[in-house]
Each structure stands twice: as structure tokens, then as C-alpha cells.
Amino acid sequence: MALRSGRGGFTFIEAMTAVAITAMAGGAVLLGVNSSLLATKTALEQTIAQGLAQQLMDELAGMAYARNAASPYEYPLAPTSAELAGPGRTQFTNLADYNGLTEAPPVDPYGIPLGTDDGQGSTRNPSLQNTYLSNWQRTALVYYVDPTTQSTELAPGQTSNFRAAEVHVWVQDKSGTLRQVYMLRRVFAYVPSS
Questions:
Q1: Which of 40, 90, 135, 168 has its Cα between 20 and 30 A from that of 25?
Q2: In angstroms, rounded to a whole number, what is the distance separating the alpha carbons of residues 14 and 36?
Q3: What is the pLDDT at residue 40?
């Protein structure tokens, strides 16, 4: 009677099959991790952009509708040279002053880049500064809208008792391309005194 060998190992084909299955599973796990990281980055950008837009929109909402309440239908909507003299936006007094505003990177009302400002018109200690927002941009537009359909912008030179304000937030990617991350729009009304 012949004795059988007690070999209990895997054949070469079985081992290669196990390696292939493990590699595919590992690839799927890495793809899932990459997707999760991308979703987290997108959510972070959205949150930051929303905060930047809301911050500027809140500042706009605290301003007067027009420079002169007796003549609220000014055109064009733009800051005066005195208001642009600054520092930053400290001389802005009404909605029109924000039309065409572009900040790259976003700044506080004194013109100091966010993350480096101390909130009082100066910069904070360099060891406490954060330059994360250095590749971000924030813009504002203010324009008259149709009184009945406030989603319709009026033609240049036309005025109404309604102005829309838009704040756009952009981020510059590694290739240098600006990508809009968030936009906030609000309509402001002028109510004449009776």
C-alpha cells in the first residue's frame, strides 16, 4: 500500500487568485477613501465660502439703501473716490458702494486679509496668522431689479425701488483656475416715506 503525501499547501494558481482578490479589494478601499476625502474637501470649501459670502452680505445689509435718501435712484451704482480712499471698506456707507467690489484674498473692512487681521485694523502676531484664504476671492455686485419680478435685472440706466446684491466666492485651484464655490443673492427694497 502506498502512502500519500500530507501536503496541504496552496497551488500557484490558488495563491495568485488570492493575491488578485486582495488587490482588487484594496483598490476598492482606496477608491472609497479617496472619494471620502474629496467629499470632505468639497464640504469644507462650501462651508468656508458660505461663511465668507454671508459675512459680506451681512455687512451690506447694515448699509443705507442709497447715498442720499432724498434721491435714492442714483445711477451708476458705484463708490465715490472719497469712499474708495479707505482704508479698506471703512468709508462705504450704502449699497452702491459695494458694486464691483473684488477682494483677492478676502479682506476685513479695514483692508487686512482675513486670517491675518486682528479685527481692529491691524495684523495679528505672525505666529498666529493663517494664510489658508490666500487663494480665495470674493466679489460683490449691486444692481436694480424689476419691481414685479425681482429675479430680472433692469437694463443699464433704469432704476426701481429694488436692488439686488450678489456675493460670489471663488477659489483658485493648483492650475491657477478660479472656480466659483458659492453665490449668495438678496434683494433690498427702498420704501419712500409718506
A1: 40
A2: 33
A3: 86
Q: What local confidence, expressed as pLDDT, does residue 8 receive?
A: 67
Q: Is residue 26 within 8 Å of residue 162, measured between CB atoms?
A: no
Q: How far apart are CA 151 and CA 148, in angstroms?
A: 9
Using 50, 70 and 90 to split pLDDT, how confident is the model at 180?
very high
101-104: long-range contacts at Cβ-Cβ below 8 A with a sequence spacing of 24 or more?
101/138, 101/139, 101/140, 102/137, 102/138, 102/139, 103/137, 103/138, 103/139, 104/136, 104/137, 104/138
Amino acid at 130: N
Separation between Cα atoms, residue 170 and residue 152, nearest integer Å: 24
Domain residue spans in the chain? 33-189
Taking the C-alpha atoms of 83, 88, 90 and 91 in order, what is their torsion angle to the nearest 10 degrees?
0
